[in-house]
Amino acid sequence: MNWDKDAIFKALSDSNRRLILDELSERNELTLYELTARLIMKHGLSISRQAISKHISALEDAGLVQSKRKGKYRVLMFNKEPLTDLLKGWVE
Amino acid sequence: MNWDKDAIFKALSDSNRRLILDELSERNELTLYELTARLIMKHGLSISRQAISKHISALEDAGLVQSKRKGKYRVLMFNKEPLTDLLKGWVE
DNA sequence: AGTATATGCAACCAATTAGTTGCATGTCAA
DNA sequence: TTGACATGCAACTAATTGGTTGCATATACT
């Protein structure tokens, strides 16, 4: 796979998106609603579902989040692949 | 040192800043003018010295660039330290 | 069928940001 | 000390972006 470094770094540049990755990394396969609930409850974020949905789009464009449809739900999964070799050239 | 992840990721989210890191990584201790020249000549960038100066500020805030005064010059150096453990928690 | 739930999409807004231009400061060298 | 060179700083602009609100679509359940 040929990852788009720019999309990856841009996706990682927002703290809310990094928080989303933290959540998905710890507890894989969340729906948008579950994720929203966790971000608001657990992390005290005040943000709408739609805003989080846009963050997910950015993360998907970067390949950092993948999703599959499960009936009425869409479960989100963290994909660490784009992160390997991301810093190559600067650190070993 | 306690690095500011947000500053680091934000600094890395711009392709011109990443290019600056590439240049400084390959050829350490450049002045602002030398760096500007290389970015324009070697990489075909069309950007002003002042714009690059602002990028340097962002990189310095993130700890990724350090500088020391040498008379009338200010030489820039790449500092990879903030990059270690940057992706910790997501990849090993 | 009809309602509730989960998500998708688009227009809009305020704040941030990458860039510019113009001018000021500081240091070396003749 | 005067001129040339390297950098610093501030105001302004256009584009991007994180967020919102409102409405549309899709699937499940009774």
TrEMBL record, chains A, B:
Keywords: DNA-binding, Transcription, Transcription regulation
Record-annotated HTH arsR-type domain positions: 1-92
Entry-linked InterPro entries: ArsR-like_HTH (IPR011991), HTH_ArsR_DNA-bd_dom (IPR001845), HTH_MetalResp_TranReg (IPR051081), WH-like_DNA-bd_sf (IPR036388), WH_DNA-bd_sf (IPR036390)
Example of a GO MF term: DNA-binding transcription factor activity
Pfam family membership, one: HTH_20
Domain of life, per lineage: Bacteria
Protein name (database record): Metalloregulator ArsR/SmtB family transcription factor
Organism: Aquibacillus koreensis
